[in-house]
Amino acid sequence: MALVKKQFYKNKKDNGDEYWFSLARDTDTGEISVIREFDYLVDGGSEKKMSLYEFLASGGNRQNALLQLIGTLVPD
Length: 76
Known about the structure:
Blueprint: E1 3-12, E2 18-26, E3 32-40, E4 44-50, H1 52-56, H2 61-71
Antiparallel strand pairs: 1-2, 2-3, 3-4
């Protein structure tokens, strides 16, 4: 399994921790998902994979950023 990812949102907290979201596609299965990655200064990093439905259901700035990315795929 190989994942191809495109980052669409990044946030840095006051304490230096960062997290970012990427749209991901499994090149073997074609499955599309959202990957949330964390860079914790104290603990190291972690990652969470979720479905598009799960991600978009919560709404907010991160979801709007993904919808903007998707919108760029449609020609004028």
